[in-house]
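Weekly puzzle thread! Below is a chain. First person to post its structure in token form gets bragging rights.
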Amino acid sequence: MTMVAMIHSIDVEDMLDRFCRYVRLDTRSDPHSDTSPSTPGQWELLRLLEAELKGLGATDVRLTAEGYLLATIPATSKNAGAPRLAWFAHVDTATELPGGAKPIVHRKYNGKPITLPDDPTQQLTVDTTPICAKRSAMTSSRPAAPPCLAPTTRPAWRW
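Winning reply:
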């Protein structure tokens, strides 16, 4: 299967929905905690991911007391000897940022500044956020361009 065919087989709307659901959770770290994960929000995300892995058909799904989420995802390749993949992530996030983002999805982004509703002094522009310039160009040339995402409770940041 070519990379192009693989990309087209991904349910982009489902992926975007999941991403937005994950970032809405307050997973900010507690620097004073002596546990890991350090906050209830981090456990909430882990439990959500645990349930979703089970729902997707993963086997051997296990969430450890230390916050490691393990699972086996059956191979889908018909090619004998296809390589195995391992994916690792962590739930510990920066303490300086407010938790629980409120993502806004801008479909058919037109390149104009995006003012964050929770802080009108913050704007994402094509000058300060280069990925938005790329999305604007893609939108004008391809109707299926990926959306530009803007956080509404965090400072303007660069991707």
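Puzzle host: Confirmed. Bonus trivia for everyone else. Residues 40-55 form the longest helix (16 residues).
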